[in-house]
Specification:
With about 220 residues, this protein is an alpha/beta fold. The protein has a single domain, classed as Rossmann fold, CATH 3.40.50. About 35% of the residues lie in helices and about 15% in strands. The chain contains 8 helices and 7 strands. The protein has a 5-stranded parallel beta sheet with strand order 1-7-6-2-3, with helices on both faces. Strands 4-5 form a two-stranded antiparallel ribbon. Helix 4 crosses helix 6. The longest helix has 13 residues. The radius of gyration is 17 Å and the shape is globular. The protein starts with a helix and ends in a 5-residue tail after the last strand. Bound molecules: zinc ion (2 copies).
């Protein structure tokens, strides 16, 4: 509580290099945006700018998927500061980076954030994806929907790779709200792709006809 209050009054410093007065300085932002990471977001094979390699296309019901970059360097520090220090203001900076990375998408696309687990919400005091989604929707003038609820509430990162993959379609249920036809699914970190594919499969089977994916960062396999 006290830490939270203190953080509100302390001056910002760049999460990448510590430069005072900003959440992400020009130079660190430039390091993130100038790196062209031309690999498959799902499996990391080189694939140009399409986001999915030929092996992955068709394995997940996504038209396309984008990531700001790999979870390394400045981008990793930015995400970690947001997720683990609960620095809420960082949400708008991440949303701006997403805006920079994503092409123009159809104006009738509705943004759906992957809901945070209740454990994560308890720890941070807020749904970290919800803030990013709100800010991104504002920049792009798109609407938001919440058709998903999380049913499997254990933190995925505490599980092994095999366990995660075995979960496949059992992470989410429908909230009862309308499932939009055209969706941009947004998540923070993509590791095995289990979360993204689980959400996309459920939405596709529930009436969505076109689903795009966006993640803040792809977790490198070597980490
Ligand atoms: Zn910096
Ligand atoms: Zn791939």
């Amino acid at each position: 509580m006290f830490d939270g209050l203190l953080a509100q009054f302390a001056p910002h410093s760049c999460s990448g290099c510590g430069f005072l007065g900003t959440i992400l300085c020009y130079s660190c932002k430039n390091n993130i945006t100038s790196e062209i990471w031309a690999n498959c977001v799902l499996c990391e094979r080189p694939c140009g700018q399409s986001g999915m390699c030929r092996k992955c296309v068709g394995t997940v019901p996504l038209e396309q998927i984008w990531a700001i970059g790999q979870r390394r360097g400045e981008l990793e520090k930015l995400i970690d500061e947001y997720k683990f220090s609960s620095k809420r203001e960082t949400a708008s900076v991440i949303a701006e980076l997403l805006h920079y990375r994503l092409p123009v998408i159809p104006s009738d696309t509705v943004i759906v954030g992957i809901p945070a687990s209740s454990h994560a919400k308890r720890v941070r005091g807020f749904d970290h994806m919800e803030l990013i989604v709100k800010s991104f929707a504002q920049i792009r003038n798109l609407t938001i929907a919440n058709p998903l609820v999380r049913i499997f509430d254990q933190e995925l990162h505490t599980m092994g790779r095999k366990q995660r993959i075995a979960l496949k379609n059992e992470l989410f249920a429908l909230s009862g709200r309308v499932v939009p036809s055209k969706i941009l699914l947004v998540d923070d970190i993509l590791t095995t792709g289990t979360t993204m594919s689980s959400a996309a499969n459920l939405l596709r089977n529930s009436g969505a006809s076109c689903i795009y994916g966006a993640v803040v960062a792809r977790q490198p396999f070597d980490k």
